[in-house]
């Protein structure tokens, strides 16, 4: 009870260096960016570091447990909670990472994805509120506030989009009438399976395989993950094929 009643103990500060081992990537030794966790052992790394490592390995870099004999990339997942913790603990890290991503796309002459624009906008709003600027009576701010309801009608304004072409590569299924679609980068392969199954009136979406570059994709892969790992530096749209499961034609 004496410890609980001591206000100094409740407000005790911990140095960042004392917890660095828990919020850094073992592969690059930097702070976690796009934190990704191995589902088998729950060890976490930067997504880009882990994906590159698993191109030639199938074990966890930390404990060496076998993730999967042939498809280890299907057994890793984005750890949003861990990434939020890292961004809260390390001052300026999120802002610096967002700016790096924006500069990267601008250097390549590509449009900055919507999610990065949204993060930049949220970051600016947060800084303005912290500095008291959000309460300013500047007419410019007032005009911007009046336009906000109209912007809110676009539900994906801050969500990165992916253009996809869905082609059938089996004589056992018919092609889609509208094979060109555009959807959120956070949608998964499972969402596409359900979409195709509904359009083709299939009894179950589990009857389908979706492939990219002739490789079967895991159902939990997000479209952003597919683009980064299977379609990097290739022109849009992302070309995906579908076929009945176990159909080798």
UniProtKB/TrEMBL annotation:
<dbReference type="Pfam" id="PF13923">
    <property type="entry name" value="zf-C3HC4_2"/>
</dbReference>
<feature type="region of interest" description="Disordered">
    <location>
        <begin position="129"/>
        <end position="156"/>
    </location>
</feature>
<keyword id="KW-0805">Transcription regulation</keyword>
<dbReference type="Pfam" id="PF16207">
    <property type="entry name" value="RAWUL"/>
</dbReference>
<dbReference type="InterPro" id="IPR032443">
    <property type="entry name" value="RAWUL"/>
</dbReference>
<dbReference type="GO" id="GO:0007399">
    <property type="term" value="P:nervous system development"/>
</dbReference>
<dbReference type="InterPro" id="IPR017907">
    <property type="entry name" value="Znf_RING_CS"/>
</dbReference>
<dbReference type="GO" id="GO:0031519">
    <property type="term" value="C:PcG protein complex"/>
</dbReference>
<keyword id="KW-0804">Transcription</keyword>
<dbReference type="InterPro" id="IPR001841">
    <property type="entry name" value="Znf_RING"/>
</dbReference>
<feature type="domain" description="RING-type">
    <location>
        <begin position="25"/>
        <end position="64"/>
    </location>
</feature>
<keyword id="KW-0539">Nucleus</keyword>
<protein>
    <recommendedName>
        <fullName>Polycomb group RING finger protein 3</fullName>
    </recommendedName>
</protein>
<dbReference type="InterPro" id="IPR051507">
    <property type="entry name" value="PcG_RING_finger"/>
</dbReference>
<dbReference type="InterPro" id="IPR013083">
    <property type="entry name" value="Znf_RING/FYVE/PHD"/>
</dbReference>
<keyword id="KW-0678">Repressor</keyword>
<keyword id="KW-0862">Zinc</keyword>
<keyword id="KW-0479">Metal-binding</keyword>
<keyword id="KW-0863">Zinc-finger</keyword>
<dbReference type="GO" id="GO:0008270">
    <property type="term" value="F:zinc ion binding"/>
</dbReference>
<feature type="compositionally biased region" description="Basic and acidic residues">
    <location>
        <begin position="129"/>
        <end position="147"/>
    </location>
</feature>
């Amino acid at each position: 009870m004496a410890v609980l009643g001591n206000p100094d103990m409740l407000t005790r500060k911990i140095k960042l260096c004392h917890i660095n081992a828990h919020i850094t990537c073992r592969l690059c030794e930097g702070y976690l960016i796009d934190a990704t966790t191995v589902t088998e052992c729950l060890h976490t790394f930067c997504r880009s570091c882990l994906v590159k490592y698993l191109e030639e390995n199938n074990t966890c870099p930390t404990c060496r447990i076998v993730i999967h004999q042939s498809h280890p990339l299907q057994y890793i997942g984005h750890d949003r909670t861990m990434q939020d913790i890292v961004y809260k603990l390390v001052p300026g890290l999120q802002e610096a990472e967002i700016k790096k991503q924006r500069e990267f796309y601008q250097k390549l002459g590509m449009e900055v994805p919507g999610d990065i624009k949204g993060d930049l906008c949220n970051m600016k709003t947060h800084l303005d509120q912290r500095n008291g600027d959000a309460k300013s009576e500047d007419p410019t701010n007032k005009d911007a506030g009046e336009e906000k309801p109209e912007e809110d009608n676009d539900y994906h304004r801050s969500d990165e989009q992916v253009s996809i072409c869905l082609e059938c590569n089996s004589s056992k299924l018919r092609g889609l009438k509208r094979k060109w679609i555009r959807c959120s980068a956070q949608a998964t392969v499972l969402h596409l399976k359900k979409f195709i199954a509904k359009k083709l009136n299939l009894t179950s979406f589990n009857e389908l395989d979706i492939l990219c570059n002739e490789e079967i994709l895991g159902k939990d892969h997000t479209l952003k993950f597919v683009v980064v790992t299977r379609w990097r530096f290739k022109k849009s749209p992302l070309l995906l094929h579908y076929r009945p499961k176990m159909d080798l034609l």
